[in-house]
């Protein structure tokens, strides 16, 4: 079995959730501040990315972090290009931890139109996908945001996600399609109705064997995305924490059958650069266990 087939089998048959370790340039300072590293600890982007790689390496190399409870991890390109303990990050994840590597490929959000933000253009995507494939990455992740129940905005987001998703499938990778619904939207439930309709329409247009994953905001109605989870072209549906605290995200997730977490800030909540290794590993272990349990419903 190739690594890809082993990883496909793991997603289909083993429990676990996806750790989102993909904060990029814009969100990195906030992630570091939450980790107890102030802006005066680095003086430029190179130094900042070195510091955040040290933070991610500390998480990934922790004994608490393994394929027993963690299915996959989403990386930022800068992290993919670096090493952990002498191996490329993606190779370390799979070879040492048995955690499936994914890569964030979007370049951020365009300005809001029709109550939604599609993704900025990705002119170098083909080259990035080729590099990811060479570095043994399994799949990708790309994020858009929907803020209101405007059908034009919802459809623009989903159409773009699937158009680029097909490009990613053609490159031999599995795309995680992430049309996030803003948790603060006053029309959140109505927006989710529009989103599900659009997702199912585009899923039905995929060919046999064209697999995608969906990363969706925890819905207002329990098991709302059951039809997406059961769709033959959907490998897995994962949930983003979207600004909910870990406790609330876990509570909401535990009510969604067969939906698993893909948390970022909620995963690292409570971790600090100032903690001893024992303290750090203990906090991370408790965080992972709570998310794993919420993902196991």
Write the layout of secondary structure elements.
Layout: H1 3-13, E1 17-21, H2 28-34, H3 45-61, E2 70-75, H4 77-80, E3 83-84, E4 87-88, H5 89-97, E5 100-104, E6 116-117, H6 125-134, E7 139-146, H7 151-170, E8 174-181, H8 188-204, E9 212-217, H9 226-229, E10 234-240, H10 246-253, E11 260-263, H11 265-268, H12 277-294
Helix pairs in contact: 2-3, 7-8, 10-12
Describe what you observe in this structure:
The chain has 297 residues and is an alpha/beta fold. The chain has a single domain (3-294), classed as Aldolase class I (TIM Barrel, Alpha-Beta Barrel). The chain has helices at 3-13, 28-34, 45-61, 77-80, 89-97, 125-134, 151-170, 188-204, 226-229, 246-253, 265-268, 277-294, and strands spanning 17-21, 70-75, 83-84, 87-88, 100-104, 116-117, 139-146, 174-181, 212-217, 234-240, 260-263. The strands form two sheets. The chain has an eight-stranded parallel β-barrel, surrounded by six helices. Strand 10 (234-240), helix 10 (246-253) and strand 11 (260-263) form a beta-alpha-beta unit. Helix 2 (28-34) packs across helix 3, helix 7 (151-170) packs parallel to helix 8 (188-204) and helix 10 (246-253) runs parallel beside helix 12 (277-294). It starts with a helix and ends with a helix.
Describe, in short, the structure shown.
This protein is an alpha/beta fold and 297 residues long. It contains 12 helices and 11 strands.
What's the CATH H-level superfamily name? Aldolase class I
Runs in which pLDDT lies below 50 for 5 or more consecutive residues are: none
Spatial gap, N to C terminus: 29 Å
Tell me the quaternary state.
single chain
């Amino acid at each position: 079995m190739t690594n890809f087939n082993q990883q496909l089998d793991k997603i289909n048959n083993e429990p676990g959730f996806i750790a989102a370790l993909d904060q990029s340039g814009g969100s990195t300072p906030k992630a570091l501040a939450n980790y107890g590293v102030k802006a005066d600890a680095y003086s430029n982007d190179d130094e900042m990315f070195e510091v955040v790689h040290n933070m991610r390496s500390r998480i990934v190399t922790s004994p608490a972090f393994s394929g027993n409870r963690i299915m996959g991890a989403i990386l930022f390109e800068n992290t993919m290009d670096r090493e952990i303990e002498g191996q490329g990050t993606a190779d370390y994840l799979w070879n040492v931890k048995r955690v499936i590597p994914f890569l964030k490929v979007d370049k951020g959000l365009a300005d809001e139109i029709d109550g939604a933000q599609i993704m900025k253009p990705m002119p170098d995507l083909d080259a990035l996908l080729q590099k990811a494939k060479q570095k043994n990455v399994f799949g990708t992740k790309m994020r858009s945001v929907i803020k209101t129940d405007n059908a034009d905005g919802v459809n623009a987001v989903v159409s773009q996600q699937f158009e680029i998703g097909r490009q990613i499938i053609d490159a031999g990778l599995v795309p995680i399609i992430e049309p996030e619904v803003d948790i603060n939207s006053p029309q959140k439930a109505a927006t989710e109705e529009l989103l599900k309709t659009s997702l199912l329409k585009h899923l039905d247009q995929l060919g046999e064997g064209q697999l995608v994953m969906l990363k969706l905001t925890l819905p207002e109605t329990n098991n709302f995305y059951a039809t997406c989870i059961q769709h033959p072209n959907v490998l897995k549906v994962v949930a983003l924490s979207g600004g909910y605290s870990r406790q609330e995200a876990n509570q909401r997730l535990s009510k969604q059958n067969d939906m698993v977490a893909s948390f970022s800030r909620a995963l690292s909540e409570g971790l600090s650069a100032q903690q001893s290794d024992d303290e750090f590993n203990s906090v991370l272990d408790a965080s992972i266990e709570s998310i794993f349990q919420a993902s196991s419903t």
